[in-house]
Amino acid sequence: MAVDRYTSTAMFGSNATRATENRKNHERTTTRAGRGVLIVAAVLLLAEITSAQTGIPGGAGHEFELQIPGTSVEIGATFDLPIYLETDEPAVSLMFITDVDPGAIAVLDVVPGSALETFQTLYGPPPVCDIVIYPDLTGAMVVMTFGTPFDSSVVGSEFLILRLLAVAPLPTESEIFSLTDIGDTIFTPVSIVASTPFRRGDVNADASCDLTDGVRILQHLFAGNPADCLDAADIDNDGQVTLPDAVLLLQFLFQGGVTMDDSCQPDSSPDQLLCPATSCP
Q1: Does residue 84 or residue 155 have the better pLDDT?
Q2: 172, 221, 278, 280: which has the fewest C-beta neighbours closer than 10 Å?
Q3: Cβ(131)–Cβ(95) under 8 Å?
Q4: Which of 272, 249, 198, 255 is nearest to 228 (CA)?
Q5: CATH number of 9-193
Q6: Rounded to whole angstroms, how far apart are CA atoms 62 and 88?
Q7: Cα separations (Å) of 135 from 8, 106, 132?
Q8: Cα 229 → chain centroid
Q9: What pLDDT is recorded for position 57?
Q10: For residues 109 and 163, is the Cβ–Cβ distance under 8 A?
């Protein structure tokens, strides 16, 4: 499924145009979320759904249940946030919008979940499938129309997956768009926390930096042995563990002249290295 990062919303028709106008004109809502909490706003257009869209005789109401589970991630981590879609009756079309705080998170991609992949395998891709990621990575818009109605009881409910990057903790107050005038709004917390404190060079988490730590780096690189703290093994702090890290650590131990701060502190550079074990309090 192609993702268009720059498509104009005009291609989506009246519903999307209305949503965009409301998004621009609606008064911002300030949410006191607490430090380190991200709010993802998901909007489902219920008011715009008609009998022609739902296929329900007489224009009966059609309900969706949209769920986004909360999660907790470290700064610098790329993580996936699944969107689950439950339908009381097979759905012919839908639309939702996500907006995030640009100071804390970036929307990198939107990919099909297992339910949508199953749907495409059985029935082919939706005739209308527009996924727009805002050029500044602050949100995304999804509009879909199905040739064969989407039935979560048949294909499952994991509809889409938001691929996000945790940039920094949120401030105590965060402004988000509230679009409740065009549908139900769901707010889901995502905690973005500082990385675990560790001692750089203390790869085996024994509160010291010695030859054993250099050996552990080499064993990790050449024998595939897991390291207790990959952040601690990243001696040059470039976001990856490579042979130069082992060389720098050995130079620090036996030759001197190499500066390395081995005090307890969180990682100063965003990366995806993990530190499940640490000697720091």
Answers
A1: 155
A2: 172
A3: no
A4: 198
A5: 2.60.40.680
A6: 7
A7: 11, 11, 9
A8: 24
A9: 31
A10: yes
Local confidence band at 117 (pLDDT 50, 70, 90 cut-offs):
very high
Question: What tens digit of pLDDT does each residue of 121-154 get?
Answer: 999 988 888 888 888 888 888 888 888 988 989 9
How far is residue 19's CA from residue 182's CA, in Å, rounded to a whole number? 7
**Apex CA 186: angle with CA 23 and CA 161, to 5°?**
90
* C-alpha closest to that of 268 among 228, 245, 243, 236: 236
Query: With bands split at pLDDT 50, 70 and 90, how would you rate the model's confidence at 119?
Result: very high
SS3 content of the chain, % helix, strand, coil (to 5): 25, 30, 45
Domain-wise residue ranges, the chain? 9-193, 195-281
Superfamily in which the 195-281 domain is placed by CATH = Dockerin domain (1.10.1330.10)
Question: What are the residues facing 112 on neighbouring strands?
Answer: 160
Quick one: 199 exposed, middle or buried, by C-beta within 10 A (0-12, 13-18, 19+)? Answer: buried
Question: What rounded mean pLDDT belongs to the chain?
Answer: 68
Closest CA to 51 of 94, 87, 86, 92: 92
Closest CA relative to residue 142, chosen from 113, 102, 173, 181 = 113
